[in-house]
Each structure stands twice: as structure tokens, then as C-alpha cells.
Amino acid sequence: MWKSRSVIRSNKVFFCLALLVMLRTVRKLESGGARKKTTIVQRSVGNFHGFVVTHFSGSGFNNQVHQILNGMAIAKALNRTYCLSPFLRRKSDETNAETKFTNFMEIFDVSSFTNVLNLEVMDRCSTFCGGSIDFIVNMSPRSISKQAYDRQFAMQHNGFQTNLKNIINSHRLEDLGTSWIEWENEVHVRSALRFKDAKCIELYQPFPASKLITDGYFNFLPSSLKFSSSIITAATEIGKELFFDDAYVSVHWRYEYQKKGESKCRKKSLQTRGSGDICFVIFLKSFRRSAKDYLNFGDCGDCEKYLQYVHIEDIGKVLRDYQVLTRKKIFLASDADARIIDSVRKFVDFKMISDSKIGRKVVESKNMELISVIEQALCVQGEKFMGTSYSTWTTTVWMLRSPRFEEEEERIHGYIDILSANIS
User: Fold this and answer.
1) Which residues form a coiled coil (predicted)?
2) 273 burial type by CB count under 10 A (0-12 exposed, 13-18 middle, 19+ buried)
3) Is 414 left (phi over 0), alpha (psi -120 to 50) or beta?
4) Is the pLDDT of residue 406 over 60?
């Protein structure tokens, strides 16, 4: 009896401590951590010539991860300091919605980057640059308009008051189109970007991921990506609550029928396969040689592109077969609504973040970025991972898992082969 009470008391204490950690993380991110003047403990040495700043506006969180990694690679190639960009988001899809910023270091651990390149926080960068950019490199496939440049006032919030018109009139803007995506090494970067007198360079929307970081000279950067200790702690406690100390497998299912958002099936004019209410956007390299060929690092010229439609029961069967194959419980991360999730639960048992008491507190915060990264951390901690092909969310999980699971074939995507085998 006394042992039982002791265990119960211990579990209550454990839950309270875990909840306290989680609430502190929520409050820290909601309070606008990016505005704090945090410092970076720099371990790399050398002479650095100027600064590189990434300007993204309107992109999703995981797209911004790709852009930051591109920026890091270019800064390293040019022997410059990279200004660590805070993530930005709008609280809603309304045009005049308030823009929120989240410090990179609230989400990720920078220590694995600081021994290979020079980093600086954005507040200090804007001071060193005198609050203005000297040269803009347009890495978007479209020309820069003032309206697009000022969207969400991203650069202004970061302490830069650059006059775009003056930059253009003084010929301090270069349009690269999409040629930079094929860069593979330092020589390619240096030959294309020669700004000896430009102290502060702005990279405007450097997406998708270039060969520099996927297959090129700087391919070590994505595997250097690690979550911060607070995110790992939160995910670990939620995982214990859901699965105790049992190993589990993780699955990401991107539901493509949201009312708003980019890259949805209703916006794609592609060949269709199958039938049903559920749609997968499939972008796969025609000749797949490695796990990376199954992942979305952006548009691909040599890709097999189509829409795969399936039924709810098909999804249920895929998850059930995966559970039988691995003999493990499933953690599911998905943006599908409750009605869809309840329908899938009729075919297979799985857990989601909202099935945890601590996880429900995270969901109740309505901080979509925080919910997303904790779900990603849970997917990273899973014994195996199965994700959605056309999703930078899945790609981020793969990057975070890759240092630990070098030989893991299941990290690819999972759905495509299983769906093809089970659906005529």
C-alpha cells in the first residue's frame, strides 16, 4: 500500500515538474524570444569579412529552416559572419495580422554550428551594419517589388531600414533567378557573388535548398541541426506520458485539404492517380539513388509529379500494416481535423500530442510553431519514422534524425511504396 502511494506521489511530482518546464517553454516563445539580446558562444576562429543576412517573408517555418541553412553555407563560402535570422510567422491568415518572431536559439541548439562557421545575433548584426544593407541578392525566381520586400516588415523588425529604391538605382541588387540552386561548392559561390566592398549582404528568399547543403560541399550543415534542450525535454516528457518507456514509431501525415495554405492538391494541375477524399502531392526524383531523392528540398526539374488520391480506409490500412511490421505503437503528427482523425482511429490505434496532458497544454497555447516543433521532436525520438513525400516538415525531421540513423531506410517517406502496393 505504502509503495503504491509512493509511486502515485512520485508520478504526480514528475508530471508537475514536466508541466512546469512545458509552460515555461510556451511562455518564453509567446513572449517574443527573438527580441531578446541573446548572445552566441563562438568557437570557430578566423578573419571574417562582412555579414550575410537572410530575408524571408511569408514562408512557412520549415521553409525558413532551409533558407537559414542556405544562408549559413553561403556565409561560410564567402568567409563572412552569418546573422542568425529569427523565425517569423503571422498569428492568423488575416492580411493585417500581427507578425510574431521566435529566436532561432529558442528552437534549435547552435553549438553544433559555432565550431564550423561564425554566427551573430540579429540585433548585433544590424548595429554592425549601421542599420542598412549594402547589397541585395535576389534568390527568388521573381523580381523584387517594394510591396513584396516590405511584406510583414521582416527586415525593419530586424533593425534594418534599407531603402529598396536606392539599392536598385545604385545597381546594388543582383537577380540570380534559380541558377544558384545548382551551386555545389565554395568556388561556385565565390565566382557568382563578388562583393568586395559590400559589408552587409542580404539574401532575399533563398529557397529551395541548394545542392550546397543537400549533396554538395556543405552537406554537413543539415545534420548539424539539433533541437534545443527545452524542446527535447518537453517532447521526452510527452513521449513518456503517451508510451511510458516503450519504444514507438513515428508518422507524419500532411493532410492536403486545408482551407488555406500553399501547395495543396486543389492548386496543383498535375496528373492524378487513384480515387478517394484524401490526397498526397507526390514529387519524387525519377531515378532515386538515396533517401534524399524522396524528400522535398523544393522544386525539381527531373521529378515524377502527380496527385495520389486514396480513401480513409487506405490510410488506416497503411498505418495498421506499419504497426504490424514494426510491432510498435504509433505516434502520429498530422494537421488533419478531428473528424478525419476519428475516422482513421477506427482502423488503427495510435497516439497524438493531444492524447497527453502535457501535450494538451501545448495545443491549448495555440502556438502552431511550438506545437509543430514538439511533434517533430517526438518524431525524431521515434525508433523509426515514416513521413509525407512533398513536405518540408518531413524533410526537417529527416535532417534532425540523420546523425543518429545513418542507415535508416524508413526515414524516406513510407507512404508511397505501401500505397502503390495496396492500391490498384
Assistant:
1) none
2) middle
3) left
4) no
